[in-house]
Amino acid sequence: MLNPEVLVQLHHIVGDQGLRTDVLSLQTYGRDWTKIYEPAPSAIALPKSTEQVQAIIQLANQAGFKIVPSGGRTGLSGGAVAAQGEVVVSLERMRHILDFNVQDRSLTCEAGVITAQIQQFAAEQNLFYPVDFAAAGSSQIGGNIATNAGGIKVIRYGLTRQQVLGLEVVTGQGELLKLNHGLVKNATGYDLRHLFIGSEGTLGIITQASLQLIRAPDNLTVLVLGVPAFAALMQVLLRFQANLDLTAFEFFSAEALHYVVQDQGLAKPFATPAPYYALLEFENDSAGREQAALQAFQDGLAQNIVLDGVMSQSQTQAKALWRLRELISETISVYTPYKNDLSVRVSQVAEFLQAVDQLVAERYAAFEVIWYGHIGDGNLHLNILKPATMEKADFFEHCAAVNEQVFALTQSLKGSISAEHGVGLLKRDYLAYSRSPEEIAYMRAMKALFDPNQVLNPGKLLS
After folding, report:
1. What's the angle, vertex CA 283, arms to CA 278 and CA 285, rounded to 5?
2. Which of 76, 157, 407, 448 maximizes the CB count within 10 A of its CB?
């Protein structure tokens, strides 16, 4: 527990509304969406400014306590879990959009701004913020940047990294860095901005960000296709990419669709059963694009790589089809899934998916497996559902025992054991499956440079 004098000093920094020690707050702010770790923070600090964040970190260095940065706590790797008496520093009171430049198409905001708020602001300017995912309504931009969030539009627009023009960051030493100043081109040496993107709060706390907004896409249209096999999914991708610039290409299994239809009361996209489904999105801004999509669909039917399909005829129908994919994670969360978030090069997806599926079928024979993911950029989400009769601890222990085989397959293809959820606590001990000893050594050196007293997010990413 914290020294009472430290609590007094924290209170002096953040004020009456900025410090919480009640049991409900400790439980709420001390966890993320993982279900493995029990939260046990000492206090919750909610600063309202970069200066207050700086003061908290400086106090942590002086008093010797540890800090867990907290955004929307929608992560799935334990990156925002405070389980060892840390002080959680939540950025939720720093939620202001500070500036918009119409000529630069850039937006500057505090780190606690909700992703959906940025998307809505962009839409009001007839522009578009392309990073999107199921947790957009509760995730915060600082957390998105700290984990280099991906989501459903990566195939067209890239990861969060591609949208970040500049950052304001407080390092683990309490020093304030203002990085890149919103510049598109800046060839003056090391771009420290990119060190903090994806660093999971281990090097510094992001307090402000400048983001690039882009042209809003025109008349987004969605297709959901039933396909007979894993390999057919990639053939469908190639067929449609040859004719269209896709803004999304997702997949999900029949089992995933079953839970969404059953638990959310949604309708199946069509009557024809299929073991797997592909969801495609494209800009339908001309008759030629729609005709190209329909021709690709007809070709798929003729080649037996498509079993059936439906195309949205309105934005309302497009949103309804998206719900079939976007609600999967939320729907299966009540069944205590063990999640794996894996990626390989797109050209390797079919081979990889089949190999992992065979391994899972052998090692998880008694468990239900749910597949979905952003297959267009090589990202697969493997979810194992806990049997109702099995204790949670036993279930997670069993799943962890199979991890090394799944990760060894990933390593053999030079893939990633965490495509977009981060490393956090959950995958920290498996980092060597995706990073070489030399890379990990340099990561440790950077951690020591920016956070020499190890006050930020201890135990996350690096052991």
Report:
1. 140
2. 76
Chain CA centroid to CA 326, Å: 13
What is 4-93's CATH number?
A: 3.30.43.10
For residue 76, what pLDDT is reported?
Answer: 85
Question: In this predicted model, what pLDDT tens digit does every residue of 245-259 receive, in sequence order?
Answer: 999 999 999 999 999
- State the pairing for strand pair 43-45/19-20: antiparallel
Out of 99-108, 158-167, 389-398, 404-413, pick the least confident: 389-398
Q: Is the pLDDT of residue 40 over 80?
A: yes
Cβ–Cβ < 8 Å for 66, 89: no
Looking at the structure, give the CATH architecture of the domain made up of residues 336-422: 2-Layer Sandwich (3.30)
As assigned by CATH, the class of the 220-329 domain is alpha beta
Q: Which two tokens stand for residue 361?
A: 């079928």
0.90 exceeded by pTM: yes
- pLDDT tens digit string along 273-294? 999 999 999 999 888 999 999 9
Q: Which residues, 6+ apart, have CB-to-CB distance to 306 below 8 Å?
A: 225, 226, 227, 232, 236, 297, 300
The string of DSSP codes covering 340-364 is EEEE--GGGHHHHHHHHHHHHHHHT
Q: What is the rounded CA–CA span in Å between residue 348 and residue 230?
A: 12
Q: How many other CB atoms sit within 10 Å of the CB of residue 172?
A: 25
Instruction: Output the average pLDDT for the chain.
Output: 95
User: 308-317 long-range CB contacts below 8 Å, 24 or more apart?
Assistant: 308/225, 308/226, 308/270, 308/271, 308/272, 308/274, 309/223, 309/224, 309/225, 309/226, 309/269, 309/270, 310/223, 310/224, 310/269, 310/270, 311/221, 311/222, 311/223, 312/221, 312/222, 312/223, 315/220, 317/222
CATH, range 97-215: 3.30.465.10
**pLDDT above 70 coverage of the chain, percent:** 100
Q: Is the pLDDT of residue 401 over 90?
A: no
**Among 375, 121, 409, 329, which Cα is nearest to 233's?**
375
